[in-house]
Amino acid sequence: MGVLFDRMGNADNPRGFILAAYRTARNAIRGRTDSARAVDDALMTLRNAVEAYIANLLQSATALGVEQAEGALRAYGVGRARVNLNSQIQAAEAAWLAALDAQLSAARALAFTGGDEGEIIGDDLRAGILTPGPVLQSGSKWLASLMLLGWAETVGRSADKDEFHKQAIAAIDHRTTDCCLRVHGQTQPMGKPFHLTGEPRYADYIDDPPFHWYCRTAEALVPKEFADDALTRDMRGAASAEIGARRESGRRVTVHPANAFSRR
Question: What is the pTM of this model?
Fold first, then answer.
């Protein structure tokens, strides 16, 4: 998931496609907000570029989830049931684009009614309407949701629910949230939700990740008898160690590389 988030763009990867598309649009608008046509052309170019790119990202996220499910099923000698998630991918794309369209409508209205440049593209005092943050945040949710949907649907239709549990697997490093540290290693029967106690979280009980914005927690398929094995206890121990270290020091310390057993 981190790779897909990087492809969108973030503080560590400013050359990500969506960040780059926003920079191009703002540069095209700068100094030309008196021309409604110029603003409209820049906004439509931005939308077309983002729409074409996110369709590929959503397909990649879904395929990644299915691929991970296939690997788990093969490991336990279980055949894979085929799933078709095209309608879910289209719905996620529409929801993601809705965040962009809300921005574009507001920016277009400001340009047509004489709004100043700072309101649209930002300045030293304002972020401006045309900021990539909301679109990146929406994208993080739908990419994670589709990856885990691909996993959950493939596993759910293939594995015997009485024989297997699902397990939450966090990537432990300095970016891991309190929510994901506290759910790390938790196992639940296939038909029951994970119980979340940390922050931030969308809800107290959620069937599958993502559990919050930019969530990187994944799921694993485990035989019911391994739901509290040594590996699971090691994962919980690593998460508890990181929670304790943060509490003691009052800060986060870079942990690299991220994995299920990372410790400072």
Answer: 0.84
The residue with tokens 């395929």 is 63
Q: Which residues, including other chains, have CB under 8 Å from residue 35's CB and lie 6 or more apart?
A: none
Give the pair of three-digit tokens for residue 113. Answer: 């009614």
Give the sign of the dihedral formed by CA 91, CA 94, CA 97, CA 102.
negative
Q: CA angle, 197 as apex, 194 and 198 as ends, to 5°?
A: 115
Please report the sign of the dihedral spanned by the C-alpha atoms of residue 115, residue 119, residue 123, residue 124.
positive
Q: Contact 150/69 with Cβ under 8 angstroms?
A: yes
- Alpha-carbon span 147 to 85, nearest angstrom: 11
Q: In this structure, what DSSP letter does residue 169 have?
A: E
For residue 151, give both structure tokens. Answer: 């996993």
CA-to-CA distance for 180 and 194, rounded, in angstroms?
A: 11
Tens of pLDDT, residues 179-233: 999 999 999 999 899 999 999 999 999 999 999 988 989 999 999 999 889 999 9
> In sequence order, which residues have a C-beta less than 8 Å from that of residue 53 and are 6 or more positions away?
17, 18, 21
Neighbours of 133 (CB within 10 A): 11
Instruction: Return the structure tokens found at 144.
Output: 């994670």
